[in-house]
Amino acid sequence: MDNYKDIANHPILWVVTFMAIGLVLFQTFNFLKKSFKAGREMGISDEKMKTAFKTGTISAVGPSVVIVIGMVSLLIVVGGPTALMRLSYIGNVAYELLAVQFSADAYNVALTDPVIPKAVFSTALWCMAFGCVGWILVTAVITDKMDRFKKKMAGKSAGMIPVISTAAMLGAYGYLNAGYAVSLDGNTVALVTGFSIMLLLTLAHRKYKQKWMNEWGLTIAMVGGVIVAAIV
Amino acid sequence: MKNYYNDTYIPKIVRTGKLTCWIGVLIVFLPALIVTFGFHVMPERAPFMVALVAQLSINAVWWFIEPISFFPVLGIPGTYMAFLSGNIGNLRIPCAAAALKATGTEVGSDEGSIISTIGVGASVFVNVVMLIIGVVVGSQIIAALPASITSSFSFLLPALFGAVFAQFAIDDVKSGVVAMTLGVLCMTLYKAGMFNWLPIDPFVVNILVPIFGTMLFAKFTYKPKAEDEASVE
Known about the structure:
Helix content of chain B: over 70%
Oligomer: heterodimer
Shape of chain A: globular
Radius of gyration of chain A: 21 Å
Low-confidence stretches of chain A: none
Number of strands of chain A: 0
Strand content of chain B: under 5%
Radius of gyration of chain B: 21 Å
Largest interface: A-B, 165 and 170 residues
Order of helices and strands of chain A: HHHHHHHHHH
Order of helices and strands of chain B: HHHHHHHHH
Largest sheet of chain B: none
Structural class of chain B: mainly alpha
Mean pLDDT of chain A: 91
Helix content of chain A: over 70%
Number of domains of chain B: 3
Distance between the termini of chain B: 14 Å
Mean pLDDT of chain B: 89
Number of helices of chain B: 9
Number of helices of chain A: 10
Number of strands of chain B: 0
Shape of chain B: globular
């Protein structure tokens, strides 16, 4: 990256990055304020909402480690501001890494090469932008219309909404898990261990009603899965 | 009580949500525009097209699949938030799901969408703070760690996905079995080249069949409980 380091770390790109993060934080503050207010109007207890916030905070740490590690590999090629922007704002760590890989491949260079052509950098930026803009476009256009789709899927019975919702999630993770399940290596061990620990903790929570089991469950399952997979 | 959610909260959320998303669309292109036209680093035409087509062929299907399959869990506010901040399946959904579980809230209800939104909101703060620390000192920390630890980082994601799956499967064991069976079956058939006759990218089958197959399974095996009938408006 040496030949385009000055461009990749230019102050103006930092300004853009902080604009993007500013937009995300503005939306988050705004929505949280509205949601806490709506929650109170709807009779959700403050304690319940605090538990939700605390659990969200604790559960975000483990997954964020994955994203931070992705960012470190990313910033070697695209510089600090772009890496930070792409991972705190629209998109997904896996696709940003692919954008860099595809761009380097297209110019027949390896990311470990001492000199990478500048054009790889600008190509990667365009791939990242076009690659992730669809998510936000689709969200902007269809989100407020989705409630009708959900109700239609559920038909006449309101009780079916949570059942269909859970099934959609299970299907999505069924796909995400499948690659790791059929690889039959350390990933499979991590998958099965993470699954088993979470299952046991959820069952234990039903019996013993210890709050920490739910709040910390995801983190414990993740760390446990990694440790067992690393040992096996 | 229900009126506040539908009549006041949601319209406000939709207005801010749409506005922030459209601003988001503009900001996304700024780095590429600045580097290409401000610093005159032009991509070369042929490799640019190769890279872009490769990228879009992998991403584009997710633009539609993710909002549809994750919407029921996130609700309207959670969807705007999760998609503006990104990393949905690997960060926002796990946090929303954990918040729902910890508070014993039903997925897909109005209350559920408030709780998911709070869970997602909390994850935004954690993620931004950790990334800012990471961009400053991340490289040094990772370089200082022994190889035995850095090599096991790759197991974080499968462990996370397994745990999230367990959170939902426990509520509906049968759908869990169906989802996993369809997922593994499609992946195995795909690897054996059984979907190559399709006119589209055969990988799409791996995504669509488990999601919609499980939804249809749940729809057709659903038996309303007596209490449900009373809750229908």
